[in-house]
Amino acid sequence: MSYQCPLCHQPLCRQETSWVCINRHQFDRAREGYVNLLPVQHKRSKQPGDSAEMMQARRQFLNEGHYQPLQHGVCRLLAEVIDSDTTPQRVLDIGCGEGYYTGAVVQALSANANARVYGLDVSREAIRSAAKRYPDVAFCVASSQRLPFMDSSVSAALRIYAPCNPDELARVMRPGGYLLTVTPGPRHLLQFKALIYQEAKLHDAAPESLPGWSLCKEESLAYPLSLSSDSAATLLQMTPFAWRARPEVWGRIATVERFACETDFILRLWQLQP
Ligand SMILES: C[S@@+](CC[C@H](N)C(=O)[O-])C[C@H]1O[C@@H](n2cnc3c(N)ncnc32)[C@H](O)[C@@H]1O
Ligand SMILES: [Zn+2]
């Protein structure tokens, strides 16, 4: 028992094909194994989060392995902080998308019988395809503005390029629990920016302010990519600058032999002060 009813905040108990709270609010388990804990009245739009096209673009690009070094770095840092003692260890991937990192975290923690990995995203399309591909992860559709977990029930959380309500994060995290964030470093995809903006500015890499958390570790991970024109277009589609790219930019990418660009990630490990 770890999910919380999004309507009355009581614990949800697992039944054969659904999750139910003491007030009989019921959430069915989908065929793919995930549970939708986003009530209609909490939705800001009809189809919140990434669309099916964005999700498919991300899956295609990630499948090609370009971000595998990041996947390894995330798994290594999380495995270092998850104890293999006898208490349940819940690891939550917030805004997990189609589950590329979530699925790898399950594998990295597979020797730890007490670890359970959860993936949460507001996009039903993303969660549906994540659940199909990674059956060992407990996936739910929910908003990171209202996390459907009981207080102090999560041991570690992962947040890769995804928004989250900091008060909610602190509420669900056990004291001393860890948060791993991944954000763009100064030169991340600078070559795309140079195509789109007159003046390509470096990302501001200052750590965000997370009151109540202490920063334990910070690592930079940067490496070059040499992309085919198809992969470059897919990557551009995944980024927030896609909607700013004029047709000439897409045209230029479509005709390059190879597109060289830099990745630059910052991985930060935070601990919730007890
Ligand atoms: C840039 S993607 C990153 C996905 C994944 N972490 C990755 O790196 O592959 C951001 C994700 O956050 C999700 N998202 C956006 N707003 C959200 C919210 N309020 N609650 C939960 N997920 C949200 C989107 O649907 C999308 O899957
Ligand atoms: Zn309820």
From TrEMBL:
Methyltransferase domain spans which residues?
A: 91-177
According to its UniProt entry, the protein's GO biological process terms are:
methylation
Q: List the Gene Ontology MF annotations in alphabetical order.
A: metal ion binding; methyltransferase activity
* InterPro entries in the cross-refs: Methyltransf_25, Methyltransf_Superfamily, RlmA_N, rRNA_m1G-MeTrfase_A_prd, SAM-dependent_MTases_sf
* Keywords carried by this UniProt record: Metal-binding, Methyltransferase, S-adenosyl-L-methionine, Transferase, Zinc
Checking SUPFAM superfamilies in the record gives: S-adenosyl-L-methionine-dependent methyltransferases
> Does the keyword rRNA processing belong to this entry?
no
The 23S rRNA (guanine(745)-N(1))-methyltransferase N-terminal domain covers 3-46
Chain sites annotated for binding Zn(2+) = 13, 21, 25
Question: Per UniProt, where does S-adenosyl-L-methionine bind?
Answer: 67, 98-99, 188
What are the TM regions of this chain, as residue ranges?
none
UniProt xrefs under PANTHER family: 23S RRNA (GUANINE(745)-N(1))-METHYLTRANSFERASE, METHYLTRANSFERASE
> What is this protein's record name?
23S rRNA (Guanine(745)-N(1))-methyltransferase
